[in-house]
Amino acid sequence: MEDFGYRKLIAYQKAKEVVKHTYKLLRKFPAEERYAMSDQLRRASVSITSNIAEGINRYSVKDKAHFIEIAYGSLMEVSSQFEIAEELNYITSDERLSMDLLVGDVARLLTGLQKTYNSKLSTDSNP
Fold this sequence. Notes:
The chain is mostly helical. Helix content is 76%, strand content 0%. It is elongated. It starts with 9 loop residues before the first helix and ends with a helix.
């Protein structure tokens, strides 16, 4: 089995935790949310890992940075929707706090990757 580079990234590994935690929390949502907020949360959480994997395997640094930016946006979407889920009493404050801690970890890791790529871009563009 080939070991793809993205699997080694801590950002990817932590993002998978966000996906698994999302699916766990979605079991608590009411049935009427199955095709609304639940579906959106599933897609947004999986989008984080998908964009990390796709971005890391791009050849250009600009493309890598772009996909990490998209992953970050999906991460913030998940955070926002769990905030609303808490306000709707679908999840508890403690459950949202747990998700916020995971989101914070992934956000820091993605920001670090983004800074690395932006640094390479600015170095490459200066003669």
